[in-house]
Amino acid sequence: MTWSAFSPINYRLAELTIAASSSEFGARSVTWPPEHAVGRYGAPRWLLTPRLAPDDEWTLDTLPAGDLIAADHPVPNDIEWEYLRWADGSRAESGIQTLLSLPAGRYLLVRSSLQPRRTELVLLGNGYESSPPNTAVLRDSRPYYAMVIGPHPDRPPATDRPLIGFIALNYVGDSVMHGALFFDCLDSEGKESAGGELVLVIPVTGELVMDALARFSAEDSARDLQRWSETGARELAEALIDPKKPFAGGG
Fold first, then answer.
1. CB-based contacts of 10, cutoff 8 Å, min separation 6
2. Residue 138 burial by CB count (10 A; 0-12/13-18/19+): exposed, middle or buried?
3. pLDDT at residue 150 is higher than 70
């Protein structure tokens, strides 16, 4: 992994660029039949499967045999110090190994005071389904739906480490709602609520950003991905910092 730039923007927001990565962690998406595998390549921890119709619900499977990011991976002191200077006082001062395992791309890191909450239903694609025990909702308001997903099917996600985002543009089959699914990816016991702010990792470019409508129009999908990288990712970051922020498209 080449940690090419970590730039604090302000107290709540930082930018991370990874120019190249030897990590085997990320997302593998196929358009037909649609499927998104998140986790270690060849041994994903989560499988997101849309129906063939883009405006139907998705299924979420948590695979206990899938691999997670090793918590004992050594971290260079200079990299750890860069992150800790910004994350000091958050609930995610540890777990930097998750950042070292990200695939190449550009990312925004957000310190968010939102509290994950258990709900009866979660939005999976274009359908509200019964909440699996390893999910918690952060935001359910247009144009961004955000939730946290843990690695164990029977218990809530830990939040005392950076949570890695997977972005599904046009999540419900059109642009009224995009999905931001944040995964607890570290292979260590953690705390569901450790106090302090969450650290949420929003991918701006790279394989952790996908378009649910990509198979219908390459031109439209390229436009939507560009819009996300130019304005959408920053809008989501601000929404996770200030949940009352209004948007032209709703929310």
1. none
2. buried
3. yes
